[in-house]
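Ops channel
N.P.: pipeline sanity check, posting one input/output pair.
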């Protein structure tokens, strides 16, 4: 049984990682196209609308998707009742959340273009929330292959439609319309998957006792999700209010580059979360091994990316045109937080899988409070740079708060992880020095792969990873037992 779960982890990680790589490549390419075409100020309007509605999308889900994944992973026969009642509750919450967004954006006094962008983004918000639930059923059944296809397909549809509208000279409203159309297609695909593949009904239900019990389990996830969404996107809203659309546009470039790189921890968590939930019941030792591996691999991956982008930031920003030169320093600051962001994923996933979601919620609440205070102090003085400093400081805080609880759940080897961190840091510093020396004389597209080779060769020499690790990663990519 454990062997089968390991095989599923390998397959799911492989499928979902490849899909997220493709999705992030398409998404990042599309973002560059938009940024170059519309400029920092209009990009700020576009990004603000998405950030604003994304904050409120959590009120439609309120943690129900996480409960659905966890409970179906443990007891697959419960999928039918959970899904129907979640759909029923989401229908009511969608109306409520949409109404709140409408009222707030009108009270805030934004121009009609910004309000229209928010309205369109709200439609995508509702569709995506239901799509998340439909794919949560598949995750509960330890299957990410269908979602992997949709992840890339959704972004490709957005790209094709968005570029078509740009070429036709259409307004920003049409760009947001491309997102809505892609969300609708993704919604239909995910809904069809639930009905055809898993043979479940989408007819809503509202059973009081069932919903009461489900909400009791979902509430800690809901609090975490609310705090996490506000933490991630509220800085853009504050930038819009305190500094203006142009600084939102500059900040969004730095944030987008960092956010685009999070497909690796996202893929790990998508596959590991249901497995960790099962291991928590059946095999604590395997749970600790899984956690250590996730931490080690993500640290090894995050450090060279962070170091390389810090050194080559000015070269990367030139891709967006000289108008975005104000994004260089924010990018260097935000990308420095990448290793803390990556490491926080398996920590948070462990806590959720082991019924410690209340701790995750409390940690995120503390981080959100720190973020709001820092942003209110720093944004009026430093604009996008101030928001970037806040991102770095609060991600360090989030990881520290989570790590306090890990030894209370599993017996793991923290010094083994620290050892990997130190060796990876040494290899990343060596790589960074060489990149800095050659960054003016060698093309960036040559430097990036060369830097990667330097890092991994150096790390192998100092035994930061072994042949067994290489075999494990290779087997995971082809779906073999690891």
């Amino acid at each position: 049984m454990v062997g089968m779960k390991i095989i599923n982890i390998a397959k799911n990680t492989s499928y979902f990682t490849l899909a997220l790589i493709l999705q992030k490549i398409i998404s990042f390419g599309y973002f560059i196209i938009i940024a170059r075409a519309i400029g920092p100020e209009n990009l700020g309007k576009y990004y603000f609308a998405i950030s604003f509605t994304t904050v409120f999308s959590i009120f439609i889900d309120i943690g129900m998707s996480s409960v659905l994944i966890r409970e179906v992973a443990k007891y697959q026969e419960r999928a039918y009742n959970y899904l129907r009642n979640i759909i029923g509750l989401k229908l009511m919450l969608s109306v409520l959340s949409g109404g709140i967004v409408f009222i707030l954006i009108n009270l805030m006094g934004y121009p009609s273009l910004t309000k229209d962008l928010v309205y369109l983004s709200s439609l995508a918000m509702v569709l995506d929330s239901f799509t998340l639930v439909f794919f949560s059923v598949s995750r509960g059944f330890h299957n990410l292959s269908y979602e992997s296809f949709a992840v890339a397909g959704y972004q490709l549809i957005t790209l094709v439609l968005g570029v078509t509208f740009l070429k036709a000279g259409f307004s920003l409203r049409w760009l947001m319309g491309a997102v809505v159309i892609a969300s609708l297609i993704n919604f239909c695909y995910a809904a069809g998957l639930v009905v055809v593949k898993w043979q479940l009904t989408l007819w809503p239900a509202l059973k009081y006792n069932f919903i009461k019990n489900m909400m009791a389990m979902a509430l800690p996830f809901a609090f975490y999700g609310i705090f996490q969404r506000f933490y991630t996107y509220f800085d853009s809203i504050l930038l819009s209010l305190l500094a203006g659309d142009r600084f939102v546009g500059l900040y969004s470039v730095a944030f987008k580059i960092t956010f685009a790189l999070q497909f690796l921890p996202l893929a790990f968590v998508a596959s590991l979360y249901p497995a960790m939930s099962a291991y928590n019941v059946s095999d604590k030792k395997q749970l600790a091994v899984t956690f250590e591996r996730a931490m080690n691999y993500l640290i090894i991956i995050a450090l060279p990316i962070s170091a390389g982008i810090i050194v080559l930031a000015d070269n990367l920003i030139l891709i967006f045109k000289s108008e975005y030169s104000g994004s260089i320093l924010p990018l260097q600051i935000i990308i420095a937080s990448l290793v803390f962001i990556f490491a926080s994923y398996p920590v948070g996933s462990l806590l959720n899988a082991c019924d410690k979601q209340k701790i995750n919620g409390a940690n995120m609440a503390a981080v959100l409070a720190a973020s709001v205070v820092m942003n209110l102090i720093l944004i009026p003085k430093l604009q996008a740079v101030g928001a970037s400093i806040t991102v770095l400081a609060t991600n360090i805080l989030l990881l520290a708060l989570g790590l306090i609880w890990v030894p209370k759940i599993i017996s793991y080897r923290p010094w083994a992880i620290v050892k990997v961190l130190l060796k990876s840091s040494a290899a990343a510093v060596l790589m960074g020095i060489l990149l800095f020396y050659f960054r003016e004389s060698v093309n960036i597209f040559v430097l990036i792969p060369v830097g990667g080779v330097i890092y991994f060769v150096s790390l192998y020499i100092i035994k930061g990873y072994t042949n067994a690790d290489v075999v494990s990663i290779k087997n995971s990519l082809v779906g073999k037992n690891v």
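N.P.: looks fine end to end. The two ends are 14 Å apart (CA to CA).
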